[in-house]
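Quick log. Single chain, no ligands specified.
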Amino acid sequence: MNLSSTVLVLVLVIGISVVLGLAFYAKKLWGEVDKRQKQAQAEHDRAKQQCLANLDVLSQAVIADQVDLIEGVLRCCVILDIYDASLFERSALKPLLNIREKAQRFHTHGARQELTPRERMKEDKERLELAGEYRNDIRAAAFDIQTFSAGHAGAVMAHEAH
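-> predicted structure:
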């Protein structure tokens, strides 16, 4: 074997070693990607489950008149937007969008505190009127959310197990 064939064999061995090393590293990286995807899916499933639990508690509070109806609607809308906005296509939940739109004009948090007592009282009256106008729709939506969340809680938990 002459020097050039020895160098060629050495370069070939080094090349194969580098390729094998890179293949091993790529396999390790794909394993990490798979692990992270599973963790992300598990976190997504936990978030969905938490949304369902929050919707369940909130809808129970609406049904039992333990929360201001408009406040309950606004909170449900936020959670439904996070969970699955297509749920607003359900006939019982469609009115929530209209109520949310009408309630957008009400001041909240710090802005509400800046109102004069008279302005606050006026807004409270308007809020109560809106709640009264949609009371039956809000309660129907709350019952529909109860039915939906009860039916889907198990499905999300079953997906978590996989």
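Residues 126 and 151 are 35 Å apart (CA to CA).
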